[in-house]
Amino acid sequence: MDRGRIRHMAIFTLSHPRGSREAEAFLQDGARILSAIPVVRNFEVLHQISPKCDFDYGFSMEFENQEAYEAYNAHPSHQSFVQERWETEVARFQEIDLVN
């Protein structure tokens, strides 16, 4: 299968209370840092509204292809954000990667 554009979504719950100053700082910092990585397209910060899902937030972004997605994962800004913020402030998460 020839892979096209990739939509990467991470849905998560933070260790901070929902809507807290710390949670909002995490979301804003994530948007600022991750959307600045050159291969990231259409970055969005999402807030969960469905009672069927017990995650609170989501980050959604697109990549032109597998190579761009791999470049994002290896990018120093992404790795730093994961180590310094994600691993310490995210209580639990699930990643979903879809191609069209």
What can be said about this structure in brief?
The chain has 100 residues and is α+β, with helices and mostly antiparallel strands. 38% of the residues lie in helices and 33% in strands. The chain has a four-stranded antiparallel β-sheet.
Main β-sheet description? 4 strands, antiparallel
Mass-distribution shape: globular
Spatial order of strands in the largest sheet: 2-3-1-4
Low-confidence stretches: none
Structural class: alpha+beta
Secondary structure tally, helices = 3
* Strand tally: 4
% residues in beta strands: 25-35%
Record keyword descriptors for this entry.
alpha+beta; four-stranded antiparallel β-sheet
Describe this structure in words.
By secondary structure, the protein is α+β, with helices and mostly antiparallel strands. The chain has helices spanning 21-35, 66-74, 76-89, and strands at residues 6-14, 41-47, 57-63, 90-99. Strands 2-3-1-4 form a four-stranded antiparallel beta sheet. The longest helix has 15 residues, at 21-35. The protein is globular. The mean pLDDT is 95.
What's the arrangement of secondary structure elements?
Layout: E1 6-14, H1 21-35, E2 41-47, E3 57-63, H2 66-74, H3 76-89, E4 90-99
Antiparallel strand pairs: 1-3, 1-4, 2-3
Helix pairs in contact: 1-3
